[in-house]
Amino acid sequence: MKKSALQIARAAYLPKLPVTLTGAVLAVEGEPTHSVADQEEIAKLFPNTYGLPELRFEKNPNPTVGKPINVGVILSGGQAPGGHNVICGLFDGVKKINKDSRLYGFLMGPGGLVDHNYKELTSDIIDEYRNTGGFDIIGSGRTKLEKKEQFDKGLEILKELNISALVIIGGDDSNTNAAVLAEYYKSINAGVQVIGCPKTIDGDLKNEVVEASFGFDTATKVYSELIGNIQRDCFSAKKYWHFIKLMGRSASHIALECALQTQPNVCIISEEIEANNSTLEDIVNSIALTVAARSANGKNFGTVLIPEGLIEFIPAMKNLIAELNDLLAKNPDVAAMTPAEQRQFVIDHLCDKNAKTYAALPEGVARQLTLDRDPHGNVQVSLIETEKLLSEMVANRLEVLRSEGKFNGKFAAQHHFFGYEGRCAAPSNFDADYCYALGYNAACLIASGVTGYMSSLRNLTKPSVQWLAGGIPISMMFNMERRHGEMKPVIQKALVRLDGTPFRRFAAKRDEWAMNECYVFPGPIQYFGPAEVCDQPTQTLKYEHLDK
Ligand code: FBP
């Protein structure tokens, strides 16, 4: 494959490991842990891996040479910048334990383990992928590893390849499943350790003990560059309102981080909408009032950031979607009706409140809600073009304001959705270092003989050489939640905290940003140059550290 000049130069970048990981390490045990909630139930479900101590790595003054080990690795879920570096760090780490150790990658996600699709990752393959974006070294997938049959099938190939440790690189669900797999293999004495690594651009796998998931840093920097460029265009032409939807299936961390980096005129935070019990009309009205107020100052332009998961956080929409899911599951023939018949059928059969919400939606969106279902029969919320929905409703609202003499300007909208643009970008220096260290640290956890742990690095606002390395028992992040009608132990998803410093900083500034052009133009990620340009962590991480 032809390489760009940047790729060639970037391949030579040497990620900076925390000092403790640069030589042989010693695992120091902390106090026994307990889960964040539902301790008794979770202890019962994880008799072999519950209550383990946190581990901290220190330099080992008496190093010994380890035996060769065979390790497997899986990439799970959506792409996130730096995944390749986790694998490179893991490779270098297992080779450091013993040069005859081997690393096998299971192909296209957890399904590769179950279906026995794998390839050995040798040094010539690994060297091609250092500091690159993407997950293409072995591919990724969304198969969920959760059934005993899958675990047993996976064990067949692990035994065949003499693999004694498996590293699962994934988000909250994949790490939950990693802990369940660790417990199962321990309970049957399978002789396979399972270690997790925190991945997701969404930034919602974090808690008291995990400071950040990898990929969030790079992805938000890419989106912020694009938003900055749009803001400059918008400020130059002064004729458009730009409605920009940002990925992040559920939590609004990406939108909030991009707002902190670029200072747009409006940014919606789903968690606040839910907390205030706001309706779609409330959101539309508030944007329309900002548009009208700016227009009164002669500014018929601006930017609005919208988190991808917004719809499901609006209480009225949540209720509507739940009733629609049931209604359409019970009436499959609705699919064959004409659009007009469908609309009438739905309005006639929903409860009054939901029928009113449905009837108020622009026709295209109402139709999307009726038609696009996933294999489980649920609305595919991520397909709803919220940016168009909002701008269309804002335009309608502005006409009402015009008729009341409260708006006398122009309103023309442009729409954007940024998501895939950022997921496979070449990792920033932060993500390149963080990911490499996560992988290398996972190898140290394997050498320490533990299972059911997540690779952990803390102190992330400091230069990477000062990061603290260790391991966190995954079961300590668990609570019980209802999933598909059953109570299950899962890692709590981290939503934006309205009492946290990142949100409070944003909330304190947004009125000023709404009326003025406080736009910041972050520009493209820089890989070479001064540390204040190249090595800055996210605003979210910096502000969260102020809360500690
Ligand atoms: P993960 O949680 O697996 O990291 O994926 C997150 C994400 O990028 C979301 O932001 C987005 O909604 C979703 O994946 C898109 O999924 P897909 O790649 O299957 O279209």
CATH architectural group of the largest domain:
3-Layer(aba) Sandwich
Task: Please report the distance between the alpha carbons of the first and last residues.
Answer: 46 Å
| Low-confidence segments | none
The computed structural class is alpha/beta
Number of domains: 3
In short:
The chain is an alpha/beta fold. The chain has helices at residues 5-11, 39-45, 83-97, 111-114, 123-129, 148-160, 172-187, 216-237, 253-262, 270-275, 280-296, 310-313, 315-330, 339-349, 352-360, 363-371, 386-403, 420-423, 429-447, 501-515, 531-534, 539-546, and strands spanning 25-32, 53-59, 70-75, 102-106, 118-120, 163-170, 193-198, 241-246, 266-267, 302-307, 413-418, 453-458, 468-473, 478-483, 486-491.
What features would you describe in this structure?
The chain is 44% helix and 16% strand. It is globular, with a radius of gyration of 25 Å. With 548 residues, the chain is α/β, with parallel strands linked by helices. It has helices at 5-11, 39-45, 83-97, 111-114, 123-129, 148-160, 172-187, 216-237, 253-262, 270-275, 280-296, 310-313, 315-330, 339-349, 352-360, 363-371, 386-403, 420-423, 429-447, 501-515, 531-534, 539-546; strands at 25-32, 53-59, 70-75, 102-106, 118-120, 163-170, 193-198, 241-246, 266-267, 302-307, 413-418, 453-458, 468-473, 478-483, 486-491. It has 22 helices and 15 strands. The strands form 3 sheets. The chain has a 9-stranded mixed β-sheet with strand order 1-2-13-12-7-6-3-4-5, with helices on both faces. A 4-stranded parallel β-sheet has the order 9-10-8-11, sandwiched between helices. The protein has a two-stranded antiparallel ribbon with strand order 14-15. α3 (83-97) packs parallel to α19, α8 crosses α9 and α9 packs across α20. α3 links the parallel β3 and β4 (102-106). The protein has 3 domains: 5-215 and 427-483, Rossmann fold; 216-308 and 386-422 and 493-548, 3-Layer(aba) Sandwich (Rossmann fold), CATH 3.40.50; 312-384, Orthogonal Bundle (Arc Repressor Mutant, subunit A), CATH 1.10.10.480. The structure holds 1,6-di-O-phosphono-beta-D-fructofuranose (FBP).
